[in-house]
């Protein structure tokens, strides 16, 4: 990755734009995600953070995931008040299994003059060597791992792979928010409050769309992420069946 400043037409030094990329299933988006993005934006002087809801999260095979459109809209609602936050549809519109390497390729194409900083929580960072084409991901973006209650924030598993690129991955401690989408879904399913765990507009969206309620007919669009073995395209095997979420 280049990280140089460029001289503009008038001779003024212009720094390359820095874009954060916050990928997630966001089912639903919660304040843990928003604080992570905000903290990394501050630490790295990012110009913008692009939230990228997954289209088909292949590592959630067998789990009941809300429709991509519901997750996309909740992400738009949650980020609307922050002018430095935006939401991308690149993964939602790809209509096949979501791989971060594709996300980063698409964003690089859309923003050729920017440096990308992919933000990931400690739990996701733990499993990053299982991601599709992970070596290429580190060519396309710098990575920022953030702390998360209940997980150890570590780069040991990547140390030998990134030995010659010390700035490829930075670990950042952020304020601890023990919030997970799993817990939010469970609470909503039991008719317990999710106020203050997720933004107010997201509470209202969950209620309006009857998301996560086991005792109610889902309105539409929920899918069970099912299909062939990991790394195969499951787009033809996505089931439109709705099943009770296992909250795992
Ligand atoms: N409370 C949190 N603090 C820091 N990072 C978080 C937190 N919650 C999620 N993240 C990170 O945000 C990204 C997207 O997470 P995701 O949408 O899967 O939310 P989640 O709460 O982990 O969901 P689920 O409980 O359904 O697995 C991941 O990199 C994850 O590690
Ligand atoms: O590229 C992959 O193979 C891959 C595998 C698992 C997760 N990811 C990405 O990691 C981010 C968090 O994913 P998740 O499933 O924890 O919500 C999101 O941007 C995913 O696309 C990416």
TrEMBL record:
Catalytic activity: nicotinate beta-D-ribonucleotide + ATP + H(+) = deamido-NAD(+) + diphosphate
EC number, UniProt record: 2.7.7.18
Domain Cytidyltransferase-like span(s) in chain numbering: 21-187
Gene3D superfamilies associated with the record: HUPs (3.40.50.620)
Low complexity bias (residue ranges): 232-242
Signal sequence extent: none
Pathway: Cofactor biosynthesis; NAD(+) biosynthesis; deamido-NAD(+) from nicotinate D-ribonucleotide: step 1/1
Class of the enzyme per the UniProt entry, highest EC level: transferase
Keywords per UniProt: ATP-binding, NAD, Nucleotide-binding, Nucleotidyltransferase, Pyridine nucleotide biosynthesis, Transferase
Domain of life: Bacteria
Region spans: Disordered: 223-248
InterPro entries registered for this protein in UniProt: Cyt_trans-like (IPR004821), NadD/NMNAT (IPR005248), Rossmann-like_a/b/a_fold (IPR014729)
The UniProt record lists the keyword Cytoplasm: no
Listed GO MF terms: nucleotidyltransferase activity
Nucleotide-binding is among the record's keywords: yes
Family affiliation: Belongs to the NadD family.
Purpose of the protein: Catalyzes the reversible adenylation of nicotinate mononucleotide (NaMN) to nicotinic acid adenine dinucleotide (NaAD).
UniProt-recorded name of the protein: Probable nicotinate-nucleotide adenylyltransferase
Organism in which the protein naturally occurs: Rhodococcus olei
């Amino acid at each position: 990755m280049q990280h140089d400043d460029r001289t503009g037409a008038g001779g003024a030094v212009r720094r390359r734009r820095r874009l954060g990329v916050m990928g997630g299933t966001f089912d639903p988006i919660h304040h843990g995600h928003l604080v992570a993005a905000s903290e990394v934006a501050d630490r790295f002087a990012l110009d913008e953070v692009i939230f990228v809801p997954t289209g088909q999260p292949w590592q959630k095979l067998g789990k009941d995931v809300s429709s991509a459109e519901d997750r996309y809209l909740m992400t738009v609602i949650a980020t609307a008040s922050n002018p430095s936050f935006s939401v991308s549809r690149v993964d939602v519109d790809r209509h096949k299994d979501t791989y971060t390497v594709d996300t980063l390729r698409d964003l690089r194409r859309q923003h050729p003059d920017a440096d990308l900083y992919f933000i990931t929580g400690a739990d996701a960072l733990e499993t990053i060597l299982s991601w599709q084409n992970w070596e290429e991901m580190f060519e396309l973006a710098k990575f920022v791992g953030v702390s998360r209650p209940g997980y150890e924030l570590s780069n040991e598993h990547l140390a030998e792979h990134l030995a010659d690129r010390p700035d490829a991955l930075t670990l950042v401690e952020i304020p601890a928010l023990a919030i997970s989408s799993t817990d939010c879904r469970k609470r909503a399913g039991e008719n317990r409050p999710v106020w203050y765990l997720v933004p107010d507009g997201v509470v209202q969206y969950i209620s309006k769309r009857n998301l996560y309620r086991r005792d109610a007919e889902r309105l539409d669009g929920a899918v069970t992420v099912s299909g062939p073995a990991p790394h195969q395209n499951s787009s033809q095997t996505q089931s439109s069946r709705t099943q009770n979420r296992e909250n795992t």
